[in-house]
Automatic annotation (TrEMBL):
SUPFAM superfamilies: Alanine racemase C-terminal domain-like, PLP-binding barrel. The active site is at residue 391. Residues 72-327 form the Orn/DAP/Arg decarboxylase 2 N-terminal domain. Keywords: Amino-acid biosynthesis, Decarboxylase, Lyase, Lysine biosynthesis, Pyridoxal phosphate. The gene is lysA. Its EC number is 4.1.1.20. It comes from Streptomyces parvulus. The modification N6-(pyridoxal phosphate)lysine is found at residue 96. This is Diaminopimelate decarboxylase. Homodimer. One of its GO terms (molecular function) is pyridoxal phosphate binding. GO terms for biological process: lysine biosynthetic process via diaminopimelate.
């Protein structure tokens, strides 16, 4: 949403939450390709279509709310990352953004690897046929059972996050008669320009081993001494929803600096570095994300340059995009239940989901866009706030948005760019049932994660 001073002074209908004024977009029926999945358009009746199917039909068939995922867009984005990094690098899709067995199969087919961070994600990956050697296992507190399962399954790498874990993984692997490939996750001390809760490379937080004060070097020393593990590289993830490449530049500089120190001290050149994920996507028209080929070029150049000046062989690079692959490929389809104009303020539009299917607005103050998708409208724009059905006033899906003034109960609206961290962070708050994920492709739709039922809820409640 564009933030501009209002030429005629304050007017209630366009005062945003943060006190700025905003003009409504010129055409409320337009769908900005930056925030919508690739195959999204409108049909002759004005209904939004995706993968060749009108949302009105999808709502009839699968109900609302529902996450509608554009499979060909997902595959295209996955392929774009793969192609951009080429044969000398590895792309690990971060499963935490959204994981299902269908997604694992698509990734496998498109030549990507997978980053998992729990036993549940590992189980999903393996059950869908992802070869274990293409899986990286993450987490700051992996349980002994998770470590054993990961080592026994033969995952390609475990990313070590603490001194205790170095020993745990080494002992587990030795007990199983294996030598586990590992990386050490370090914090490089970068302040990523993103929300505090999703920044991960400053020192005062739970992930990784600090480079500062020599802790990372000490972790490397210990890892190199243990027979059960083979140290293959250093890992750094600086945060999430980042647009500015300078944080990666500093991170790469410091990771390469550590590789150089390791070479100088141990005579070992570690063959890999992982720069994590975190690349931002467009949630509103104001966001300008970079294309995978630009990111690949920038990261490769940084690492190559740093290695040349340190006289190191350039290590194999890996990256772990999650949001940038799945985020833009899905939207959440809601039915409007009530429309409540509050004089002098804004109009509250209640939908049949809310913070249980998208916690990001409440948790990170995230901004989203929204559009009327079951029809077009020429009505005057109204400043709206899209809220859910939960018993909480912070149950907001879209804080500030313009919707047509004739919006009415029964209309379908959709929130784009909800593919990442929405279904995967969904809850059952108020015993609301988690929505399905419906994949569409070439005029066909199929449920890849079904809607939860009351039976599902009651099955867990063993009384
Ligand atoms: N690699 C590691 C080690 C990570 O911790 C993460 C995300 C990723 C890769 C993928 O980051 P991405 O490319 O998706 O930004 N729930 C928050 C995001 C938390 C991210 C956690 N780690 C959100 O909804 O914004």
């Amino acid at each position: 949403m564009s933030r501009s001073a209002h030429p005629a002074g304050p007017r209630h209908a366009d005062v945003l939450t943060d006190g700025h004024y905003s003009a409504p977009p010129a055409d409320l029926n337009a769908l900005d390709p930056k925030v919508w999945a690739h195959t999204v358009g409108r049909d002759a009746d004005g209904a939004v279509t995706v993968g060749g199917l009108p949302v009105t039909r999808l709502a009839e068939e699968y109900g609302t709310p529902a996450y509608i995922l554009d499979e060909s867009d997902f595959r295209e984005r996955a392929r774009a990352w793969r192609t951009a990094f080429g044969a000398d690098a590895d792309v690990f899709y971060a499963g935490k953004a959204f994981l299902s067995r269908a997604v694992v199969r698509w990734l496998h087919e498109e030549g990507l690897n997978l980053d998992v961070c729990s036993g549940g994600e590992l189980a999903t990956a393996l059950s869908a046929g992802m070869p274990a050697e293409r899986v990286a296992f993450h987490g700051n507190n992996k349980s002994p059972e998770e470590i054993e399962r990961a080592v026994a399954a033969g995952v390609g790498r475990i990313v070590l996050d603490s001194f205790q874990e170095i020993v745990r993984v080494a002992h587990t692997a030795q007990a199983l008669g294996k030598r586990q490939r590992v990386q050490i996750r370090i914090t490089v001390g970068v302040e990523a320009h993103t929300h505090e809760f999703i920044a991960t490379a400053h020192e005062d937080q739970k992930f990784g081993i600090p480079l500062a004060g020599g802790q990372a070097a000490e972790a490397v020393r210990r890892a190199l001494q243990l027979d059960g593990i083979e140290l293959i590289g250093i890992h750094s993830h600086i945060g999430s929803q980042i647009f500015d490449m300078s944080g990666f530049e500093v991170a790469a500089h410091r990771v390469v600096g550590l590789l150089k120190d390791i070479r100088d001290e141990h005579g070992v050149e570690l063959p890999e570095i992982d720069l994590g994920g975190g690349l931002g996507i467009a949630y509103t028209s104001d966001d300008d994300p970079r294309e995978p080929h630009e990111i690949a070029k920038a990261l490769t150049e940084i690492v190559t340059r740093e290695c040349e000046s340190a006289r190191l062989r350039t290590p194999r690079i890996s990256v772990e995009p999650g949001r940038a692959i799945v985020g833009p490929t899905a939207f959440t389809l809601y039915e409007v239940g009530t429309v409540k104009p509050l004089d002098g303020l804004r109009t509250y539009v209640s939908v049949d989901g809310g913070m249980s299917d998208n916690i990001r607005t409440a948790l990170y103050d995230a901004e989203y866009s929204v559009a009327l998708v079951s029809r077009t409208s020429d009505a005057e724009p109204m400043l709206a706030r899209v809220v859910g059905k939960h018993c909480e006033s912070g149950d907001i899906v879209v804080k500030d948005a313009f919707l047509p003034g004739d919006l009415a109960p029964g209309d379908l609206i959709a929130v784009p760019a909800t593919g990442a961290y929405c279904r995967s962070m969904a809850s059952n708050y108020n015993h609301v049932l988690r929505p399905p994920v419906v994949a569409v492709r070439d005029g066909e739709a199929r449920v890849i994660v079904r809607r939860e039922t009351e039976e599902d809820l009651l099955r867990l409640d063993v009384g």
